[in-house]
Design brief:
The chain is α+β, with helices and mostly antiparallel strands. The protein contains three helices and three strands, in the order ββαααβ.
Length: 133
C-alpha cells in the first residue's frame, strides 16, 4: 500500500472554474478535470516564470514531484485545447472558507444562463446534478 501523498501548498484560488469552447453545448463535449495542484504548478512555472526549484519550494514538494504535476497539467490542457474539450477545475480540496466567494461558487460563467454540467438553468455548484448530462 503506497504512503499517503504529502499535502501541496497552493497560494492561488481560481475564480473561473470551468472553460469550454464557445458555441458547443457541454453535453457534446468531453470534460478534462484539472486539480488545484496542477493549476498552481502552471501558475508558478508558466505565469510567474519561476524555475523548477523555486516552484517546488513554494508548493513544499520535491522537484521530481513538481515536474510530474506540471507535466500532467500541461498534457491535460494541451489535449483539451487540441481536441476541443472542456476543462473543469477541481476545487474539492478547498475548505469552505477558501472558496472563491463568500457565497457558494458558481462553476460557470455562461452568457446563455445554462449549467455546463447538465444544461439546466443556472444553479449553484453544490446543487448541480452532474449525472444528468
Amino acid at each position: 500500500m503506497p504512503r499517503p501523498a504529502k499535502p501541496r501548498h497552493v497560494d492561488f484560488t481560481p475564480t473561473a472554474l470551468f472553460f469550454k469552447p464557445a458555441g458547443i453545448p457541454l453535453r457534446q463535449l468531453e470534460v478534462a478535470t484539472i486539480g488545484l495542484a496542477e493549476i498552481e504548478a502552471l501558475r508558478l512555472k508558466d505565469v510567474e516564470g519561476l524555475d523548477q526549484a523555486e516552484c517546488a519550494q513554494q508548493m513544499r514538494i520535491s522537484r521530481p514531484t513538481f515536474q510530474r504535476i506540471l507535466t500532467t497539467a500541461r498534457q491535460k490542457v494541451a489535449l483539451a485545447l487540441v481536441n476541443g474539450n472542456a476543462i473543469r477545475v477541481e476545487i474539492s480540496a478547498l475548505e469552505p472558507d477558501q472558496l472563491p466567494s463568500s457565497e457558494e461558487p458558481e462553476i460557470h460563467n455562461t452568457t446563455d444562463g445554462y449549467c455546463p454540467h447538465c444544461d439546466a438553468p443556472r444553479h449553484r455548484y453544490r446543487r448541480c446534478n452532474q449525472e444528468t448530462t
